[in-house]
Design brief:
binds magnesium ion; two-stranded antiparallel ribbon; 5 helices; disordered C terminus; alpha/beta; 177 residues; Rossmann fold; 4-stranded parallel sheet; 19% strand
């Protein structure tokens, strides 16, 4: 049986873009540890992400420095249920230029295929994941923080996950010729 895929969500630069470029984006204020943060959220993102997960059999999870705050301050404002949280806030140090979240993600996924929506990933992250023994297949979706998550990103994820779900295309079951 194939392992259930994951869809990993960043907040800043993905669900909270840098600027308000769409009428769907609304300002919200969050207070964390006495500090007020003004963020932009698109209320339609929750429904679209839930549909992506439902149609592909994937599980959504947070991969953001907001950690558990994402389940309080972000998810409910866009209609997402409580999601698993990958702890990313300790910095284990970089081996070859990978983002500090990348090591935590590599440990968490445990060979499950995953799509990762983030605005801070580059070649060293891809290489780190490629070389990690606990990582199997993955798709890094590079999100422009000026626009955040778009329908094109969601379609890219959906196509990749649909391909993974097709029987006979992985490992020993791959058709020849
Ligand atoms: Mg980010």
């Amino acid at each position: 049986m194939t392992k259930r895929p994951l869809v990993l969500l960043d907040v800043d630069g993905v669900l909270n873009p840098v600027r308000r470029h769409s009428l769907w984006l609304r300002h919200h204020e969050c207070v964390l540890d006495g500090q007020t943060y003004r963020i932009l959220l698109n209320a339609r993102h929750g429904r679209k992400l839930a549909a992506l997960a439902r149609h592909t059999g994937a599980e959504l999870a947070w991969a953001t420095t907001w950690e558990q705050h994402a389940n309080v301050e972000i998810g409910p404002r866009i209609g997402l249920p409580q999601l698993p949280v990958i702890k990313v806030n300790s910095d284990p140090g970089s081996r070859a230029g990978e983002h500090f979240k990348t090591r935590h993600v590599a440990e968490y996924v445990a060979r499950r295929p995953f799509v990762w929506f983030d605005d801070n990933l580059a070649a060293p992250d891809w290489q780190y994941l490629q070389d990690h023994p606990g990582v199997d297949e993955f798709l890094l979706v590079d999100v422009d923080p000026r626009t955040g998550l778009t329908d094109a990103h969601l379609a890219q994820a959906r196509a990749w996950l649909a391909d993974r779900a097709r029987p006979g295309l992985d490992g020993a079951g791959a058709p020849s010729g």
